[in-house]
């Protein structure tokens, strides 16, 4: 097909047939140039040229041929629906200081959690065609990560990552009602974590549309994982928080590698891609720091925070200790856990460091 030129205020999507996991979306608001489109397989990413501009409307996805996943409110008199949780502001230095970390397994419950994560990681790698290279290892071509394969992995990861916080918060909420006792602040942090993971997903859905195969994978994985985590949290909340801590360690590794490949020029279609407006508003991204790389750094920082939070919660007495992330301390000078990443600890805070 000859090249297609799309004029201002027009969005272009490639979703002709659900042949692949995800249909990438090329958006621009003053011009888009797309080459070599195939009617049966969507976008030929090997020869496409996407030109993104910096102009963005208030809503970044017009409603045309593809169903909008989270359209703006259409209720008369309603301008905007506000979020109950305001995201803490990260600065660039804080995000650059986020590093890969691993908490060593010290007892049998840690080993159970770590083993479960390794099995889960194998399944996710197999499903999304991912293999993490060893130092100096050159992976076969089939394991080369493209923008599309990274997006597959991100979407699948975030649909699963939003489950543990919701399950934990729900069960602690019901436990508080059932026992008629306070929860000491755990519910808020767990639900906020689930909300944050969902925002990651909604952001990626502004850049890609899932195909039927991805939808089926998400449906199956969510059904199995929700019920498995539900039962596991009833048995041992501590192991579940350690499991999520180890899972978030893997998420930090995933996003770190994606950022490194983007910096190395291996993902050219993302080099000039801007973050969607929903991301700009949620993370309060400043001018000049709204690229795809910046977006990945914000999300990696969130995952590093979840890593710290869950490892910390796994170190506490589950039934009685207050949530250190919702606590006002008598000695404000001493370092304590916080909602931001200014004093981030990759392996979590030990109980004796907090109380």
UniProtKB/TrEMBL annotation:
Region (Disordered): 45-65
Keyword match Transport: yes
Residues where Fe cation 1 binds: 158, 197, 200, 303
InterPro entries documented for this protein: AOX, AOX_sf
GO cellular component: mitochondrial inner membrane; respiratory chain complex
Membrane-related topology note: Multi-pass membrane protein
The keyword Repeat is assigned to this record: no
Gene3D superfamilies tied to this protein: Alternative oxidase (1.20.1260.140)
Keywords: Electron transport, Iron, Membrane, Metal-binding, Mitochondrion, Mitochondrion inner membrane, Oxidoreductase, Respiratory chain, Transit peptide, Transmembrane, Transmembrane helix, Transport
GO molecular function, one term: metal ion binding
Superkingdom of the source species: Eukaryota
Record: residues binding Fe cation 2: 197, 248, 303, 306
Family assignment from sequence similarity: Belongs to the alternative oxidase family.
Function: Catalyzes cyanide-resistant oxygen consumption. May increase respiration when the cytochrome respiratory pathway is restricted, or in response to low temperatures.
Name this protein carries in UniProt: Alternative oxidase
Organism of derivation: Penicillium angulare
Species classification: Eukaryota, Fungi, Dikarya, Ascomycota, Pezizomycotina
